[in-house]
Amino acid sequence: MRLTDIADDLIRLAEEARDGAAEMLFEPTVRLGVTGLSRAGKTVFITSLVANLLARGRMTQFRAEAEGRLLSAIVAPHPDRGTPRFAYEDHLAALSGAEPRWPESTRRISQIRVSLRYRREGLFAGLQGPGALHLDIVDYPGEWLLDLGLLDAGFEDWSAKALAAADLPARAPHAAPWRAALAARDGAEPFDEAEAQRLAAAFTGYLRACREAGLSGFAPGRFLMPGDMEGSPALAFCPLPPRSGRDALHAEFARRFDAYRRHVAKPFFRDHFARLDRQIVLVDLMTALSDGPAAVADLAGAMTEALSAFRPGRNSWLASILGARIDRILFAATKADHLHHSEHDRLMAILSALFSDSVARAAFRGAETRAMAIAALRATVEQEAEGMRAVRGRLLSTGKEAALDPGELPRDPAPVLAAARASSGEAGGGWLDGEFRAMAFAPPRLTAGEGLPHIRLDRALDFLIGDKLT
Ligand SMILES: Nc1nc2c(ncn2[C@@H]2O[C@H](COP(=O)(O)OP(=O)(O)OP(=O)(O)O)[C@@H](O)[C@H]2O)c(=O)[nH]1
Ligand SMILES: [Mg+2]
Q: How far is the centre of ligand 2, averaged over its atoms, from the C-alpha of 104 (Å)?
């Protein structure tokens, strides 16, 4: 081969690569935000979504698939090489192995791209050739979502809110050691790093106790899930009562809070939430309902706080990057496989009522919203006998099969809301206590090649991206 031929080949290859890259840039992409607090079910949802897109036997309510227009789906390299790839294969192997296991709590951010090819709708579809759509999804530790509520907060306001929350009956017992450490402090003392560390450790202990008690709100997110900030002195601060006189520690904590806001919370949302097109908000209402009204109130409060960042006009830089874009939001009550399907409408009604403010705000901004009860991975089958409508599955605690009837949800969500509101006053409160009990199920044992069973994952996906596949 002559030298000029080699040169020609090289040029041709370079041009092809360039054209390929340019084509990729113009191929439509949907960035799907999977939003939810820790344990809401994000990692399981993403794993099942990808698995059910690659093998679509269970996606009959996903219109493009039902119409036979979805030609192929593959996991493709993500153009952003700076963020690790979502460990889809590992999660799938854990969920569908001989001894299936749920994933561990997510400790760092990751992302995955699924590329779809589809036949277009309509008379002239054949002339255009198949369409392509990239679906980009990000997974992250749920704790970090709570930082959304900090984005435009000042130290004084944040402290006042955090201290008021710590006084609520459901939280006060957990907060006692931290409150005692605060009370023992002398504001006139010069700043001491060891004291800062002690106070931050006491505050972290309080947040951890809240999480173990089934509560939801525990910002700042990196205190419980530090990721690469493990042991960083930047995390050595906590909320403080209003300053009296010159208080060096107070001034330093205000500085650290502000640095956290600017250097941790803001970049996380700018890089991963800013360019979302569609959003699914996953809410583990089942566990909260089972834990009682205080847990429901805490869950609704934490989620509303996080979602309030999406309110137009509240914060101009946030509103400008988040506000305009997201045009569909699905509110999903996860783990609906804990309930007989006849209860799903009630679960959905409670979800809609609890998040009515967030739904109204999203609608006001022009986003289409919907509520659904889903299970990303169905761990149970239904069982009906002698008036009992139960679900049967393998218990996580014992590994033994059991049929459970968690109890009836109220037909009207109003008493749930009222009890949750009242419980901001007292822990417990009568409603549902002892009447409604969810249990943790192990993932189902699947036969090889069966694919991951789900409830309404196909409908959820159809709402989220169906219109992009026409
Ligand atoms: N029965 C049932 N349980 C589920 C389902 N999805 C999640 N779970 C349960 O919820 C737990 C949390 O799910 P994950 O997907 O790890 O939650 P996450 O939102 O990624 O949590 P973090 O990584 O801590 O933010 C799992 O360990 C399961 O016990 C589901 O579809 N059905
Ligand atoms: Mg996770």
A: 7
DSSP-derived secondary structure for 173-208: HHHHHHHHHHHT--TTSPP-HHHHHHHHHHHHHHHH
The atom number, within ligand 1, closest to the CA of 40 reads 19
Burial of 184 (0-12, 13-18, 19+ CB in 10 A): exposed
> Residue 433 pLDDT more than 60?
no
Sign of CA dihedral 79, 80, 84, 86: negative
Residues 68, 73, 78: CA angle, nearest 5 degrees: 150
Which ligand 1 atom is at minimum distance from the Cα of 102? Answer: 27
Of 196 and 21, the structure prediction assigns the larger pLDDT to 196
Residue 260 has pLDDT above 80, yes or no: yes
Model confidence over 173-222: pLDDT tens digits? 999 999 999 999 999 999 999 999 999 999 999 999 999 998 998 889 99
Condensed to tens digits (0 to 9), the pLDDT of residues 324-379 reads 578 899 999 999 999 999 999 999 999 999 999 888 888 877 889 999 999 999 99
Residue 73 CA to ligand 1 center (angstroms) comes to: 25
43 alpha carbon to ligand 1 midpoint, in Å? 7
Give the ligand 1 atom nearest the CA of 143: 25
Distance 351 CA to ligand 2 centre (A): 21
Ligand 1 close to Cβ of residue 151 (< 6 A): no
Rounded to whole angstroms, the Cα distance separating 135 from 41 reads 19
The pair of three-digit structure tokens given for residue 111, joined into one six-digit string = 């992302």
pTM (predicted TM-score): 0.91
Q: Which atom, in ligand 1's list, is nearest to the CA of 338?
A: 1
Decide which of 382 and 448 is more confident.
Answer: 382
Q: Which ligand has the minimum distance to the alpha carbon of residue 46?
A: 1
Nearest ligand to residue 376 Cα: 1
Question: What architecture is domain 29-145+273-469?
Answer: 3-Layer(aba) Sandwich (3.40)
pLDDT greater at residue 302 or residue 1 = 302
Read off the pLDDT of residues 151-162 as tens digits, 9 standing for 90 and up. Answer: 888 999 999 999
Structural domain boundaries in the chain: 29-145+273-469, 147-269
The amino acid at 90: D
Omega prior to 173 cis, within 30 of 0: no
Any ligand 1 atom below 6 A from CB of 441: yes
With the most atoms of ligand 1 within 8 angstroms of its CB, the residue from 34, 35, 37, 43 to mutate is 43
CA-nearest of 216, 190, 192, 219 to 203 is: 219
For ligand 2, the distance from its centroid to the CA atom of residue 243, given in whole angstroms, is 38
